[in-house]
Amino acid sequence: MIIEIGHYALVLALATALIVSVLPVIGARRGDAAMMALAPTGSLVLFALVAFSFGVLTWAYVVSDFSVANVWENSHSLMPLIYKYSGVWGNHEGSMLLWLLILVFFSALVAVFGRNLPDTLRANVLAVQAWISTAFLFFILLTSNPFLRLDPAPAEGQDLNPVLQDFGLAVHPPLLYLGYVGFSVCFSFAVAALIEGRIDAAWARWVRPWTLAAWTFLTAGIAMGSYWAYYELGWGGWWFWDPVENASFMPWLAGTALLHSALVMEKREALKIWTVLLAIMTFSLSLLGTFLVRSGVLTSVHSFATDPTRGIFILCILGIFIGGAFVLFAWRAPMLKAGGIFAPISREGALVLNNLILTVATATVLTGTLYPLILETLTGEKISVGAPFFNMTFGLLMLPLLVAVPFGPVLAWKRGDLLGALQRLYVFAGLALAAGLIFFYIQNGGPVLAIFGLVLGFWGMIGAFADLWYRANFAKVGLSVGLKRLTGLPRSVFGTAIAHFGLGVTVLGIFAATTFGTETVVEMKQGASVDVGGYSLTYDGLRDAVGPNYTEQRGHFAVSRGGVQVADVWSSKRLYTARRMPTTEAGILTFGLSQLYVSLGDAMDSGGMVVRIWWKPFILCIWGGALVMMFGGFVSLSDRRLRVGAPSRKVKPIKATLEAAE
Question: What are the DSSP E strand ranges found in 457-528?
């Protein structure tokens, strides 16, 4: 009975979403406070209903209720409890319910923390959120109902896909969706502002914390997904330019541009039209990612196999919201003032360069991702756009951006001095060059061009704190006074420096692992040894083992250095009994920031085993840098100016900048 109640809660949620979609908009047009007040109340009710429905599905997984088709298809009574929880979103229907839950969760947050917003703007924002919720509620109820029953109920489930039975997949999707769906708030603010005609610095102040929160979670989600693929799939790589990987990366790139553009709009009331367009584009890319994963047009370990009906439904949602938003933008944009004027050499100019490069990079990734699909649809010809294309085009675009990042914070607003910025940064640049050369020397050389990449990484790390150094004015006021001035700086300044530092750490990890890493593929028999990365691995044979819902063969390797054993590493091949599906579990040893990665291959007729061994120097910098960026985002969010995201009602409202059409 509780399953039917969970289903009914979704039906009630749809009715609530329809009410919030219509009445507050009418109230905003009429100035009716009672109708506008329905928006926050209705959003909270909507969240409660969807949360209850999600809780019911989770309960069905925990108790292994195999009368529910979704549970039967994706769970097993012997599956560990944590994977029963993650199994809720380890399938199409459950993951869409999680998507919806996070969407209405953000609506509830706007309802609670947006009390200082103008009543009309809050009503319109929550109404736009309800429009999106309505569309996805229809999608779930009509094509992806997670509460369908089986009669008679099977005695046992079919188990969750083995590659999803991992802690990383318990964390990765919620983090990713918090980023994906979080950008819906920015989209709703943009559409509401275009409807209402309020596009000004206050609007940018309201949008920034939501953009920052979504960007922070998306950063964490992408990093977690990358690390999961690295250690779980046994292929030794951290990024494959898989179309579904690209689907999450594109909103991150556009969201990064939006974050910086909103800053310019807030500080200087410039880039208004561009910022609104970016807010629409970023969530549009999130919706595109949803379509790619769930339409069945892609074959990927990340994607869900779905029937054509679902793909067409999502395509319609895509067309309505993206098309409708762009039509609204095209109608309203000519009526907007462009905003403040600034010189090309200025902090605004640096942020415009940032936006230009990031949007072109996004377009490049979008082209490489969609071109094969469009070509196959039009001509039937199948082609593959792989890593060489993306590495060349995207990599070359990023180089000037990485060089320019430390310059932005030290340039003045409106009109800057490039020569003065160079004079401020030349010491930091010298330190980065020295660090890169020393690093290259310690690693015993490599391609000479690798020095440039290493220097870029150190340049991002060291240059990140140039703004803090000059704001505190250590050179003139001394250490003690400088520290006092430093502690008085806004937290958003520290957050920016930390995030830029994290970017430098990631860049360093990418170049170091790519340049100095090694791969060894060898057939090994018991007692055989191989030298990799300064370590010697001795193969000690296979051991049989049994897990909760799988059997495995574990290969044992003794790791020694200088003739002294320093560690053991196990790599295994598993067979999940319910699905009869094999997987490879890599053995990974961590030495500082570097890793030794061992993956078992096929058994040979000669009695040996094919073994792949990678030495990955400083590879943890890739994900460590992402964690640092995430931490920087949270530090910025803790800034008291961004906690609420809106100025007090007592502050005189900034004059709207929407002019009547000529």
Answer: 518-524
Q: How far is the first Cα of the chain from the last one, in angstroms, to the nearest whole number?
A: 62
Q: In angstroms, what CA-CA distances link 613 with 159, 404, 525, 559?
A: 31, 37, 15, 12
Q: Residue 652: its pLDDT value, please?
A: 43
At a CB cut-off of 8 Å and minimum separation 6, what does 135 contact?
A: 317, 320, 321
The tally of CA atoms less than 13 A away on the side-chain side of residue 389 is 14
Q: How many CB atoms lie within 10 A of CB 600?
A: 25
Alpha-carbon span 277 to 258, nearest angstrom: 9
C-alpha torsion sign, points 374, 375, 379, 380:
negative
Tokens 């007692």, residue? 527
Query: Do residues 284 and 322 make contact, with C-beta atoms less than 8 angstroms apart?
Result: yes
Asked whether the beta carbons of 222 and 286 are under 8 A apart, the reply is no
Tens digits of residue pLDDT in 433-485: 999 999 999 988 778 888 999 999 999 999 998 889 888 888 788 888 888 88
- Cβ contacts of 207 within 8 Å, gap of 6 or more: 186, 189, 190, 262, 275, 279, 645
Give residue 437's identity as a one-letter amino acid code: L
Amino acid found at 527: G
- Among residues 12, 87, 84, the alpha carbon closest in space to that of 48 is found at 12
Closest of 137, 251, 277, 128 to residue 199, by C-alpha:
277
pLDDT at 304: 54
**Which amino acid belongs to residue 622?**
I
Pair type for strands 535-546 and 529-532: antiparallel
What number of residues does the chain have? 662
DSSP string computed for 422-433: HHHHHHHHHHHH
Cα 167 to Cα 71, 80, 100, 163, distances in angstroms:
19, 11, 22, 11
- DSSP calls for 604-654: PTTS-EEEEEEEETTTHHHHHHHHHHHHHHHHHHTSTTTSSSS--TTSPPP
The pLDDT score that the predictor gives to residue 580 is: 86
Write out the two tokens for 481: 């006074």
Give the β-pairing of 609-616 and 518-524.
antiparallel
Name the residue among 545, 535, 539 with its Cα closest to residue 557.
Answer: 539
Q: What does the block give as tokens for 269?
A: 């009331």
Q: In what order do the strands lie in the sheet with 518-524?
A: 518-524, 609-616, 594-603, 587-591
- Cα 307 from Cα 236, distance rounded (Å): 32
The answer to whether residues 136 and 317 touch, using CB atoms and an 8 Å cutoff, is yes
Closest CA to 21 of 146, 109, 137, 116: 137
Task: State pTM to two decimals.
Answer: 0.92
One-letter amino acid identity for 271? L
Angle at 657 between CA 654 and CA 658, to 5 degrees: 135
User: Which residue shows structure tokens 């969807």?
Assistant: 50
Phi/psi of residue 540, nearest 5 degrees: -115, 15
**What token pair was written down for 187?**
């989209």
Q: Alpha-carbon distance 616 to 595, whole Å?
A: 5
Alpha carbons 344 and 523: distance in angstroms, whole number? 60
CA distances from 615 to 199, 533, 570 (A): 52, 6, 16
- Please report the pLDDT score of residue 655 as a whole number: 40
Which has the closest alpha carbon to 270: 189, 330, 201, 194?
A: 201
Cβ atoms < 10 Å from Cβ of 202: 21
Provide Rg for the chain, Cα atoms. 27
Vertex 471 angle, CA 468 and 476, to 5°: 115
| 274-303 per-position pLDDT tens digit | 999 999 999 999 999 888 887 666 555 444
Angle at 509 between CA 503 and CA 511, to 5 degrees: 105
Listed in sequence order, the DSSP H helices in 147-200 are: 167-196
Least confident of 276-280, 354-358, 372-376: 372-376
